[in-house]
Design a protein that fits this description.
Layout lengths: L3 E10 L3 E11 L4 E5 L6 H8 L7 E6 L2 E2 L5 H7 E4 L12 H11 L4 H14 L15 H13 L5 E5 L7 H18 L2 E5 L6 H4 L2 E6 L2 E7 H5 L2 H6 L6 H11 L10 H15 L1
Helix pairs in contact: 3-4, 3-5, 4-5
The structure holds adenosine-5'-triphosphate (ATP) and magnesium ion.
């Protein structure tokens, strides 16, 4: 059974605006899935189906094999944690600590467990020092981290992050990648995220969906999708900088194998340098 599955999912906004059209999406266990697409491609609309904020106009959404209903919506929200694109939509308590505690308290956990989870979540995203602060007086990147901490504290099986790196500084992005690594490796959590930073995708994701005008136009492993630059440019996306560099060196006649992540590229350059010596 898949953790999340959509079958032929179509969503029409009021005013007959097509948000999604015939989307088939699968998230399995222990996966790191990136969803990319230009502005208005449908990423946020898709993500809002994963925890029952939106219900399909037609087609099916299955969360852990079950359609979302009013009866199981609490279970669904416990299972899938969604961090909104805009942190202001998610943060409303008078202090950071209370905000992060809100979800776990709502799950009916005892105060000691809540306290422990809040401590852990604040530490994970590196904002223990903001504990007593008023969320609405924080910077954009700080708010983003509060929103992420609030969802991590719920300990979901699937963590869905809608443009988590937008507005984060370079250290914030590194911290976020470390959080995703920890959650995936230590707890086996599946992470789904959208991003406009394509170069980040090979560093974090193993699977990739490409959206365009409400549809999925490509899917596969990160390497499979990124080896087709024409497809990416046709939907207003860019190829990540590392495969772009390797391809241009190949065009100069340098016999390098394709690489996508920083680490793969380093290994490939080292191999080449050793053979040259
Ligand atoms: N509340 C709404 N009412 C009507 N149309 C909407 C609404 N929200 C989104 N849309 C439309 O649905 C489509 C998909 O929007 P969505 O927000 O899912 O895109 P996105 O891929 O998340 O874009 P971005 O990269 O800008 O966040 C767009 O055409 C958008 O104009
Ligand atoms: Mg969006």
């Amino acid at each position: 059974m898949h953790l999340i599955e959509t079958r032929d999912l179509t969503y029409i906004y009021p005013g007959k605006v097509t948000g999604l059209e015939g989307v088939n999406f699968i998230a399995g266990r222990n996966s790191r899935i990136a969803v990319i697409g230009a502005n208005g491609a449908g990423k946020s609309t898709l993500f809002k189906h994963f925890n029952g904020i939106f219900r399909a106009t037609s087609g099916t959404v299955l969360i852990h094999g079950e359609p979302v209903t009013n009866a199981n919506i609490r279970e669904v929200r416990k299972f899938v944690g969604l961090v909104f694109q805009n942190a202001d939509d998610q943060i409303f308590s008078p202090t950071v600590e209370q905000d992060v505690a809100f979800g776990p308290l709502n799950l009916g956990l005892d105060p000691e467990t809540v306290h422990h989870r809040v401590d852990e979540a604040l530490a994970m995203v590196g904002i223990e020092h903001l504990r007593e602060r008023v969320p609405h007086h924080l910077s954009g990147g700080e708010k983003k981290r509060v929103a992420i901490a609030g969802v991590i504290a719920m300990e979901p099986q699937v963590l869905v992050l809608d443009e988590p790196t937008a507005g984060l500084d370079p250290q914030g992005i590194k911290d976020l990648i470390a959080v995703v690594d920890t959650l995936a490796e230590r707890y086996g959590i599946t992470v789904i995220f959208s991003t406009h930073e394509v170069s980040l995708v090979p560093e974090v994701a193993d699977q990739l969906y490409v959206m365009h005008k409400g549809k999925i136009v490509a899917q596969g492993t990160v390497n499979e999708v990124f080896c087709d630059p024409d497809l990416l440019t046709s939907v207003r996306l860019d190829v990540p900088v590392i495969p772009k560099l390797i391809r241009s060196l190949q065009d100069e006649g340098i016999p390098l194998s394709m690489a996508y992540s920083l680490d793969e590229a380093k290994q490939e350059f080292l191999r080449f340098a050793r053979e040259k010596r």
